[in-house]
Automatic annotation (TrEMBL), chain A:
<keyword id="KW-0560">Oxidoreductase</keyword>
<dbReference type="Pfam" id="PF00866">
    <property type="entry name" value="Ring_hydroxyl_B"/>
</dbReference>
<comment type="similarity">
    <text>Belongs to the bacterial ring-hydroxylating dioxygenase beta subunit family.</text>
</comment>
<dbReference type="InterPro" id="IPR032710">
    <property type="entry name" value="NTF2-like_dom_sf"/>
</dbReference>
<dbReference type="GO" id="GO:0051213">
    <property type="term" value="F:dioxygenase activity"/>
</dbReference>
<protein>
    <submittedName>
        <fullName>Phthalate 3,4-dioxygenase beta subunit</fullName>
    </submittedName>
</protein>
<dbReference type="InterPro" id="IPR000391">
    <property type="entry name" value="Rng_hydr_dOase-bsu"/>
</dbReference>
<keyword id="KW-0223">Dioxygenase</keyword>
<dbReference type="GO" id="GO:0019380">
    <property type="term" value="P:3-phenylpropionate catabolic process"/>
</dbReference>
From TrEMBL, chain B:
<dbReference type="InterPro" id="IPR036922">
    <property type="entry name" value="Rieske_2Fe-2S_sf"/>
</dbReference>
<keyword id="KW-0058">Aromatic hydrocarbons catabolism</keyword>
<dbReference type="Pfam" id="PF00355">
    <property type="entry name" value="Rieske"/>
</dbReference>
<dbReference type="InterPro" id="IPR015881">
    <property type="entry name" value="ARHD_Rieske_2Fe_2S"/>
</dbReference>
<dbReference type="GO" id="GO:0016705">
    <property type="term" value="F:oxidoreductase activity, acting on paired donors, with incorporation or reduction of molecular oxygen"/>
</dbReference>
<dbReference type="InterPro" id="IPR043257">
    <property type="entry name" value="Rieske_N"/>
</dbReference>
<comment type="similarity">
    <text>Belongs to the bacterial ring-hydroxylating dioxygenase alpha subunit family.</text>
</comment>
<dbReference type="InterPro" id="IPR001663">
    <property type="entry name" value="Rng_hydr_dOase-A"/>
</dbReference>
<dbReference type="GO" id="GO:0005506">
    <property type="term" value="F:iron ion binding"/>
</dbReference>
């Protein structure tokens, strides 16, 4: 995925910038929630208009102009569909994660980019490497991906989260065309 | 190699030696005798709509370029250069007028013809030394289509596809011919699971019994009205020709009311009426059965269901169709290729909601599929050991000890084949009978293709 011109190296916030530090902390805090499958808390960090997308990557010739499967994604979620997925994990019959996987989301390569039109949103790029181990027999699986997020300050006056960063958009660019994990009963 | 006769005998009795789900010798036989002969799904014509469009797909270990040539014809060509065996196409999809081998630069038109051979004159003495004219990438030994679904067989003597499918073709129409123009196939999502390929194929063919238990969570979260045990066992299980499947019994009503119940808008219902045969319409409208999961031997499956996909007060549901292939990698690993299918003439809004329904239910993130795969991986790893060689799994549901059915087949069912109502493993047994027959038959002749140049 090629980053647009607005996110050149020159536009990247210095690592000492408070907005970058806050964005970085958001991602690390979020990773801890995803590792422990604390999805109720995770959902509270998502805006009502969340878009959470993980396109299907395909191998194409250099210069083909695309590297995702047209019209298809692994995840293409809004708040409702995410809420159903999370609600399912909370039932006693989501067998695929009972016993739960041992998960570790390694988050790195964080860069934060300001937007011209607003101070209440930033674009954050990161890399994530998910280690997933199930049971005591199977080989663990790894999922490597880049992420491009839009974080937005919660504009809801009076809410406990008012002024805090929330996740409004996430595009997960997975680094395999054929995933080597039994399913995506996890989030990245 | 072990004598498999007793294994096949047990399978035909509905007692399945557990090790067949993870056994290298069985897998070697399957490669030769099942996948070396059967009609294997590769792609749908809608995936390569324009001249030059191609996708690269496999039949187990063999890579094929499925392309639409300049004349509009669909080709399936073995993706191996005639010279040193390099893959001439290393992308998964795209559009190309030619494929040029990166090794020595031999190049082929998108219909497979060898058109470029560097230093043909100097190196080979021209046509006298290597007859370039008429050479093509090896075509798949047999290629045929049904409703735009492109299949190949590695057996040059394969019967016509329609004959191979037999009356299962009737049921394929429900999924792939809801209007005269048929479906668009989108995807696939691809992922690897440590499960034997047969488990998914059997499950989709007839396992209505697992739905209420394995998938109870999707009912609990309000996504579905249907997969309750009481609803599931009212459905008919049919087997016809080379495939079989499960259905749901719809509430009483007319044909239109029943199709609306599943979530089809009236304009799509009108096209179904204009496209389907009287028997198709009667199966839904008179008998009240709507297709759900299905499999065609050996490894193509389909599913149709109708979840709630929007956060509204209403009970509105949207149907979706998925087509998937259980592509074997080894005895204990399968690559799943899962596509979303939708009628080409469906309204845009319907296509969007149906895609959403697919993603929520099936595929790499699907909430049904997640729990299925957990089971299948566990079965496969447990089938690898010595104890599994001592265990014959009971797959006799629906049969009494004297092999008579627990309840007789339906006296009246508008679709072809044999149908039962209630739980029973009729279709899983039918699937494995085809499997046993295939393993028993001698392998097809391979033959060779003369490339010229030597005599």
């Amino acid at each position: 995925m090629t980053a647009p011109a607005s996110r050149t190296i020159a536009r990247c916030l210095p690592f000492g910038d408070p907005r970058h530090l806050e964005a970085h902390q958001f991602l690390v805090d979020e990773a801890a929630l995803l590792d422990t499958q604390d999805y109720d808390t995770w959902m509270s960090l998502l805006t009502a208009d969340i878009r959470y997308v993980m396109p299907v990557r395909v191998s194409t010739a250099r210069g083909a102009g695309f590297d995702t499967a047209p019209g298809m994604a692994h995840f293409d979620e809004d708040h409702y569909s995410l809420s159903r997925r999370v609600a399912r994990f909370a039932t006693e019959h989501a067998w695929t994660e009972d016993p739960p996987s041992r998960l570790r989301h390694h988050v790195s390569n964080v860069r934060t980019f300001p937007l011209d039109h607003t101070d209440d949103e930033v674009v954050v790029e990161s890399a994530v490497l998910l280690f997933r181990s199930r049971g005591d027999v199977r080989e663990p699986s790894l999922i490597s991906a880049g992420r491009e997020d839009v974080l937005r300050r919660d504009p809801t006056r009076g809410a406990p989260s008012a002024g805090h960063w929330m996740l409004a958009r996430r595009t997960v660019s997975v680094d395999e065309s054929v995933l080597r994990t039994q399913n995506l009963a996890i989030f990245l | 190699m072990r004598d498999q006769a007793s294994v096949l005998e047990d399978v035909r009795q509905g007692m399945i030696p557990a090790h067949i789900y993870n056994d290298d010798e069985i897998f070697a036989l399957e490669k030769e005798r099942v996948f070396g002969r059967a009609w294997m799904f590769l792609a749908h014509e809608s995936e390569i709509p324009h001249a030059g469009d191609y996708v690269v797909r496999r039949v187990v270990d063999d890579s094929f370029i499925v392309s639409r040539d300049e004349s509009g014809a669909v080709r399936a060509m073995f993706n191996m250069c005639l010279h040193r065996g390099m893959q001439v196409c290393r992308a998964e999809m795209g559009n190309a007028s030619h494929f040029r081998c990166p090794y020595h630069g031999w190049s082929y038109k998108n219909d497979g013809r060898l058109v470029g051979l560097p230093f043909h004159g100097e190196a080979y003495g021209g046509e006298e030394g290597f007859r370039k004219k008429g050479q093509t990438l090896l075509p798949a030994p047999s290629l045929d289509t049904y409703n735009g679904l492109i299949f190949v067989s590695l057996d040059p003597a394969a019967p016509p596809l329609r004959e191979y499918l037999g009356d299962f073709a009737f049921y394929l129409d429900f999924y792939t011919q809801q209007s005269a123009e048929g479906i668009e196939l989108v995807g696939p999502q691809r992922w690897r699971v440590k499960a034997n390929w047969k488990i998914g194929a059997e499950n989709f063919a007839g396992d209505s019994y697992h739905t209420p238990h394995t998938h109870s969570s999707v009912v609990e979260i309000g996504l579905f009205r249907e997969p309750k045990a009481s609803k599931r066992k009212e459905g008919a299980l049919y087997w016809a020709g080379r495939g079989g499947g499960t259905t749901y019994k719809l509430p009483p009503g007319t044909l239109d009311e029943r199709l609306r119940y599943v979530g089809y808008p009236d304009e799509m219902i009108a096209r179904m009426r204009a496209t389907w045969s009287d028997a198709h319409l009667a199966m839904v409208g008179d008998d009240g059965f709507m297709v759900s999961a299905a499999s065609a031997f050996p490894n193509l499956s389909l599913v149709h269901n109708w979840p709630k996909v929007e956060d509204t007060e209403s009970d509105d549901v949207t149907p979706f169709i998925s087509l998937r292939q259980w592509q074997p990698v080894s005895a204990d690993e399968t690559e799943v290729l899962s596509w979303f299918a939708v009628d080409r003439n469906a309204p845009q809004r319907f296509k969007e909601l149906s895609y959403k329904a697919y993603l929520m239910c099936f595929g790499s993130t699907g909430m049904f599929e997640q729990d299925d795969v957990e089971n299948w991986v566990s079965i496969t790893s447990t089938a690898a050991g010595s104890m599994a060689r001592r265990l014959r799994l009971n797959s006799r549901m629906g049969l009494l000890a004297d092999d008579k059915p627990v309840s007789p087949p339906l006296a009246h069912f508008s679709g072809p084949g044999v149908a039962y109502v209630g739980f029973g493993e009729y279709n899983q047994r039918a699937m494995l009978r085809h499997w046993a027959d295939a393993l028993e038959a001698p392998p097809p002749e391979e033959g060779t293709v003369d490339l010229g140049g030597t005599s």
